[in-house]
Design a protein that fits this description.
CATH architecture: 2-Layer Sandwich
Largest sheet: 4 strands, antiparallel
Radius of gyration: 12 Å
CATH topology: Histidine-containing Protein, Chain: A
Number of strands: 4
Strand order of the largest sheet: 1-4-2-3
Structural class: alpha+beta
């Protein structure tokens, strides 16, 4: 299992376009992706499910813990963290690393 903790800086938090970008990228990997909102204690939630991620109610400034498990878990985690660091920039999925 691979884990990282990161703050959301995007003004929309993990909602709408940022959420869609996160789910799209997470689904491009075979590994399981779990997300916890450490700020409000919600989670873990399936990082490949838009509905589950909405339930995190992750807003700007909230701290998330992302955990991946599987053969490409390390690459998945690095890519998801990079996506958040880039403020959910629209890049092709595996080119983010």
């Amino acid at each position: 299992m691979f884990e990282a903790t990161i703050s959301i800086n995007h003004s929309s938090g993990l909602h709408a376009r940022p959420l869609a970008a996160f789910v799209k990228l997470a689904k491009s990997f075979a590994s399981e992706v779990q997300v916890h909102n450490l700020t409000n204690g919600k989670g873990p939630m399936n990082g490949k499910s838009p509905v589950h991620l909405l339930m995190l109610t992750a807003q700007q400034g909230h701290v998330l813990r992302i955990a991946t498990r599987g053969a490409d878990g390390e690459e998945a985690l690095k890519s998801l963290v990079r996506l958040i660091e880039l403020d959910f920039a629209q890049e092709s999925s595996h080119d983010i690393v």
